[in-house]
Design goal:
single chain, alpha+beta, transmembrane helix, elongated, 5-stranded antiparallel sheet, 5-stranded mixed sheet, HisK_dim/P_sf, two-component regulatory system, about 575 residues
Length: about 575
């Protein structure tokens, strides 16, 4: 027989029993309901008023309609005091509400909420007390119902003995099987051998468990394989890699990173990184949020290496779940850069000697005792002299650049008067300015304090500013050279103002970069693009600052400031 037929027969019998018990129960419940209605009427209404007032507090809008609703409910409550202690709580509620209407205050709202809670407790206790009275009546009804139910139970006894096991046992087995599945025991199987619906359900469950077992083992093996492969790749990388979670606990450190840190990678996982960094300077540097301006120099296996730090934030959507710190090995590039710097220094130094020889020969050729020169020969000599001077300037800049790149800038600090710097620079370039009929206008207060600086390097920077200003200024114009005490009263500010075509704003941020030259619209360029970059290094090496202010069509103002002596 199908389970459906069995259930239908059993339910038909149960329906008959239910109708009988329901009819009797309805009659008695109606009797109890009428008694309970009278007992609980006053308390339920009070709770309804309290609920309305609490809704107003919870919304916390206190609009006119909210105040009116609260007032209305409070008035009804004042007229429905039936329990001991209810009158006192209602009176306190009225007092706090009136005070709140005069001066809104969050503390008053809390006091009102407390009184509402007290009213709720008083009425609930009354309901419990009165419910006990109803329960006494219900117990009497219960006795009658038990008597009637016993008669029905005797009739249904045969069904209780035979029918429950038909459904209960398979369901119990299914429940136990589902519990095993919830504990990820996918090897659990049901042993129900039936040909009804419960048998089909058991077979479907066994098939599901089998598929889950296959999926669990295959997925776990694949995840473990991918994890091992990822760890192998990370460990074989030449870059040091450190992984941290969102709370800065170490997740992993590859073998290269552990070697640099001088720690055992297997013992680092799960440890709090700042605690480990207390005894490890390199890890403390890596955990620092700032990015080093220069490559990190790290000695491993008695060999120097250079590394750049890179931090990758790991996010799940907008949530930060960790970060990865990478030390990229740039030692080969650093060695090439060092070789380039040494090459430039060597070539520049070697070129200065023949160029100086050329200039000396030019001086001899210009001497009329060697022999007179015609116009064309003088013109060629002037061109050769200009080119040799340009080559000499370039080699000088390259030598200065090699000093900057190797960090071997030699500074001779002493107390210098700003007038001394300005006078030397303007006198050196006075001839170049006169050739373009440019007037050099100096603004120097007589009481300027001395600065602590290197005279040669400072004068070189100011001459570079003046040389550029002369080059880009129109003929018969004016260049202003100014020195004044800075706004902070701790520096002297030097500036060179020209009235040439100016520099576009998009180029001003790069004007102090090496080899950068502002586009000149097809005009021939002069210089190497190193002068301003070297100037920046010279000023910053003296703990000063450098900058430019320019507006297209209104000229440029280059400035630097150095600390007082």
């Amino acid at each position: 027989m199908k389970l459906k037929t069995k259930l239908r027969l059993a339910l038909t019998f149960l329906f008959a029993v239910i109708v009988l018990l329901g009819s009797l129960g309805a009659w008695y419940l109606k009797k109890l309901s009428s008694e309970a209605q009278e007992i609980l009427k006053d308390n339920y209404i009070s709770l309804e008023y309290v609920r309305n007032m609490r809704n107003v507090i919870d919304e916390n809008a206190w609009k006119n309609e909210d105040v009116a609703l609260f007032e209305k409910s409070l008035l009804h409550q004042e007229q429905n005091i039936t329990e001991i202690g209810e009158a006192e709580a209602t009176q306190q509620l009225r007092s706090h509400f009136n005070a709140l209407r005069k001066s809104p205050d969050s503390s008053r709202i809390r006091l009102i909420a407390q009184q509402l809670t007290k009213l709720t407790d008083v009425n609930m206790q009354a309901i419990v007390r009165k419910n006990a009275q109803v329960k006494k009546t219900a117990d009497e009804v219960y006795s009658y119902m038990v008597l009637i139910a016993t008669v029905c139970a005797l009739v249904a006894f045969s069904f209780i003995i035979n029918f429950p096991n038909t459904i209960a046992e398979p369901i119990q087995q299914l429940t136990e099987g589902l519990q095993e599945i919830s504990r990820k025991n996918y090897e659990s199987r049901l042993g129900v051998e039936r040909k009804d619906e419960l048998g089909e359900m058991a077979r479907a469950f066994n098939l599901m468990a089998e598929k889950l077992d296959e999926y669990e083992h295959s997925s776990l093996a694949r995840v473990l394989f991918e994890k091992r492969r990822t760890e192998t790749i990370i460990n074989q990388m030449n870059d040091a890699i450190v992984g941290l979670d969102e709370s800065d606990y170490l997740l992993f450190v590859n073998s290269t990173g552990a070697e640099m840190l001088g720690l055992d990678a297997s013992q680092l996982a799960g440890k709090y990184a700042p605690d480990v960094a207390l005894k490890n300077d390199l890890l403390r540097t890596l955990l620092n949020d700032g990015t080093p301006l220069k490559p990190l120099k790290i000695v491993t296996n008695e060999r120097e290496g250079y590394f750049t730090k890179e931090v990758l934030e790991v996010k799940n959507g907008e949530q930060r779940i960790g970060k990865v710190i990478i030390l990229k090995n740039i030692t080969p590039f650093h060695e090439l850069d060092q070789a380039k710097t040494n090459f430039i220094a060597t070539i520049s130094h070697e070129l200065k000697t023949p160029i100086s020889g050329i200039k000396m020969s030019l001086k001899l050729l210009e001497n009329e005792r060697i022999g007179p020169l015609n116009k064309e020969q003088k013109h060629l000599l002037n061109q050769i002299q200009d080119d040799s001077q340009r080559l000499l300037n370039i080699t000088g800049e390259l030598l200065d650049l090699s000093q900057v790149e190797t960090g071997n800038i030699q500074l001779n600090f002493r107390s210098i008067h700003p007038q001394e710097v300005v006078k030397a620079a303007t006198e050196a370039l006075l001839f170049s300015a006169e050739q373009k009929q440019i007037e050099l206008h100096c603004q120097l207060p007589a009481d300027l304090p001395a600065i602590q600086a290197d005279l040669d390097k400072t004068m070189w920077v100011l001459m570079n500013f003046l040389s550029n200003a002369i080059r880009y200024s129109p003929e018969k114009s004016t260049i202003t050279v100014e020195a004044q005490v800075g706004h902070d009263q701790k520096h002297v500010l030097f500036s060179v103002q020209d009235f040439g075509k100016g520099i576009e704003s998009k180029y001003q941020e790069r004007i102090f970069d090496r080899y950068f030259q502002v586009p000149s619209n097809g005009q021939s360029k002069s210089g190497t693009g190193l002068g301003l970059a070297i100037s920046k290094e010279f000023i910053e090496a003296q703990k000063g600052q450098i900058g430019v202010e320019s507006e297209l069509g209104n000229g440029s103002r280059f400035w630097f400031q150095l600390p007082l002596a």
